[in-house]
Amino acid sequence: MKQLITLLTILFIADSQLSAQATWTVSGTNIYNPNTGNVGIGTITPANKLSVQNAAQLSGMTSTISTTQTQVNTTDLGDGAISASYTLSKSSTSNQLVTRVFQLGSVNNLTGGGAVNYMRVLNIANNTNAGTITGDLDAIFIENGSTAGTVTNSRAIRINNFQGTNQAGIAINVMGGTNHTYALLGTNNGAIPAGNWGVYAQGATDKNYFAGNTGIGTTNPQAKLDVNGNIFCNSKVYIGTVDAATTTQIANYALAVNGTAIFSTAKVKSYGNWPDYVFDDQYKLMSLQEVESFLKLNKHLPGVPAAAEVEKDGIDLGTNQSILLKKVEELTLYMIDQNKKISVQQDEINNLKNQLMVLQKR
């Protein structure tokens, strides 16, 4: 009898405790609990209105925020502390203009007459604070790909910016680091290149396209490429349209211009065989008779390329200047020699005049 009384007492106490707890109430198709505390799933000490420990899957969730701030706190749950995904069935018959996997903000996410100094739809801060990360530290890591299906245009990130007096599609600031790169494009393994770079693009077969004028060292470019400073190129430079035939002709030249070019100053590298040797006593100057014979036979000066050679291969500015100077120096020697002969002849003429005057006086 004593044991029966004890059991009834335990059941009475348990029933009293269960009765003291709020019960779930059905109202139409809704179910609610008037409990004013917190609800815990996977935890007996919920810290918020709804606390979920470990994995959670939400499908078709809609959130309406009426307060001024909303904060989501997550503990260390391993990979994918928060995971949001959306799948459109391949058999779906819906005709959707835009499918958004995850969307932040709305078209009008700031209303009213107040002023806001700064506004960010998504603000991400990624700090180590302490400890060592042996791999990569990425604030955002995005992969965009498909193992099946057809995609017309594929972009990992697409940004449209419509407003602002001073506006930018992307603004990137690197605040520190020994080797830092503001924009790293197309690297094979994602490694940061040594040194400091504004934009670093890698890809042997890639082409880069810029519409409008591009300025380097100037904020007011006046041409498709406007460079205010020095240019160094360790490969070939082609200016103007180059066809297959022209490419064969210019294959051995570092700079090829198909069209006219203008210089305020042009300098040819130092020339090692400048023709001052013409004035050396050992230099053998052709006689004018030899020059005449050569001209009659070849129709150009000795040592000067013929018209057919120039038409085929063009001329080297340094070599051509050397040839012209050589001819000027040879011409100077001819003139000096002719002047000597004229002086001797003039002396002889003067002597003959004097002799004639003497004879006339007799």
What does this entry look like structurally?
The longest helix is centred in the C-terminal third of the chain and has 45 residues, at 317-361. The protein has helices at residues 2-20, 244-249, 288-298, 307-313, 317-361; strands at residues 25-27, 30-32, 39-41, 50-52, 181-185, 197-201, 214-216, 225-227, 237-239, 255-257. It contains five helices and ten strands. The protein starts with a helix and ends with a helix. With 362 residues, the chain is α/β, with parallel strands linked by helices. Strands 1-2 form a two-stranded antiparallel ribbon. Helix 2 (244-249) links the parallel strand 9 (237-239) and strand 10. Among the domains are: 171-202, no CATH class; 213-262, no CATH class; 275-361, no CATH class. 24% of the residues lie in helices and 9% in strands. Residues 65-74 have low confidence and may be disordered.
Key terms:
362 residues, alpha/beta, two-stranded antiparallel ribbon, two-stranded parallel ribbon, rod-shaped
Shape: rod-shaped
- Reading the helices and strands in chain order gives HEEEEEEEEEHEHHH
Tell me how many strands there are.
10
Give the integer mean of the pLDDT values.
79
Rounded to the nearest angstrom, the distance between the terminal CA atoms is 192 Å
Largest sheet, in brief, is: 2 strands, antiparallel
Count of DSSP H/I helices = 5
Arrangement of strands in the largest sheet: 1-2
Helix content bin: 10-25%
Rg, please? Answer: 46 Å
Percent of residues in β-strands: 5-15%
Q: Look at the helices and sheets and give the structural class.
A: alpha/beta
Low-confidence stretches: 65-74
